[in-house]
Specification:
The protein is about 45% helix and about 15% strand. It is of the alpha/beta class. Strands 8-7-6-9-10-11 form a six-stranded parallel β-sheet. The protein has a five-stranded mixed β-sheet with strand order 2-1-3-4-5, with helices on both faces. The protein starts with 5 loop residues before the first helix and ends with a helix. The structure holds ligand 2YC. Ligand 2YC binds near residues 3 and 66.
């Protein structure tokens, strides 16, 4: 898991409207709609239901400590979607207690091992690697107009890539997977067959895999995993990996077909998964057709 630095997050809060319009230009959908698609909420929840959800973001000082701007950025992404979100004044246990004393529905916190949204009332854990995998797969699904029956190559079989694979299967894609450590590919394939009776293709050569896949999920922490030569006009990439796995020249070539952000998609999806965990009945009413 790549640990972000403050430079990764410092401009996100002020730029959310522009980010949202760029996302809409690429996918035809807003961040809220992409996150709903990722959380399998098939009708956009009414604003009053979203604003009824209270989220406390708790800065954590353990390990390598606070990332300047991280908690505020998480809060601003949730607020951008309409959630009632605040950063606790206290950190760590005192911050969690402060969140509980403010009767939050969701507590969000990240140490160096996990970034989670916790629902105290029903003991649910929403992990950022799950939300990020589903969020970027959902964005790719919307960007290409539906992945059903299409081949998608996942590069990187870590926690985000594994969750993206599950999401791609949900969206009906034919999944191929590559990892520099081939054993991780095999383990993912075995797990998906055991749990979903779905076979995914494991790729030993990245160059070969890139030559015959045009839809990609880049979920590695390598800065140059996709070379410019393997990109064509029909290439669409959802890249949760930090840093982005391609050169600036390659990025320029594929920008209109590229989804990449350090926090927005994952945090937005955590918020909608949290809404689903805390307001299932109200959401259910949203989902049922009227009448
Ligand atoms: O400011 C704080 O509360 C820090 N304890 C936050 C540490 C986050 C560490 N994790 C990351 O930088 C990223 C997450 C955004 C998802 C995976 N790694």
């Amino acid at each position: 898991m790549t640990r972000l630095i403050s430079q990764d997050v410092e401009n996100i809060s002020v730029d959310l409207d522009r980010f949202d319009s760029l996302l809409h230009a690429k996918t035809g959908h807003t961040l809220l709609e992409v996150a709903c698609h990722a959380a399998n909420i098939n009708k956009r929840p009414r604003r009053s239901l979203i604003s009824s959800l209270k989220a406390g973001v708790v800065p954590m000082t353990s390990g390598e400590g606070i990332i300047q701007g991280f908690s505020e950025t998480v809060r601003s992404i949730l607020a951008h979607l309409g959630f009632h979100a605040f950063v606790t004044e206290n950190t760590d246990a005192a911050g969690v207690a402060e969140a509980f004393e403010n009767s939050v529905d969701i507590v969000m916190m990240a140490d160096d091992r996990r970034f989670v949204a916790l629902s105290p009332k029903n003991c649910q854990v929403i992990d950022n690697s799950v939300a990020t995998g589903w969020g970027f797969a959902a964005g790719l699904d919307l960007m290409v107009g539906g992945l059903k029956g299409n081949k998608v190559l996942i590069i990187g079989c870590g926690p985000v890539g594994q969750n993206a694979a599950e999401a791609l299967i949900h969206f009906g894609a034919e999944v191929s997977a590559y990892d520099v450590n081939h054993e991780r590919c095999i383990a993912l394939a075995k797990r998906l067959f055991r749990s979903k009776y779905v076979n995914i293709r494991t790729e030993k050569s990245l160059a070969h895999a890139l030559s015959n896949h045009k839809f990609l999920i880049e979920a590695t922490n390598s800065p140059d995993v996709i070379d410019e030569k393997s990109l064509g006009p029909g290439t669409f990439i959802a890249a949760p990996g930090m840093p982005l796995g391609m050169s600036i020249a390659a990025r320029k070539k594929v920008e209109a077909h590229l989804l990449h952000d350090p926090l927005q998609t994952g945090v937005a999806t955590m918020g909608l998964m949290g809404l689903k965990a805390c307001r299932p009945l109200e959401l259910d009413q949203e989902i049922k057709p009227n009448g």
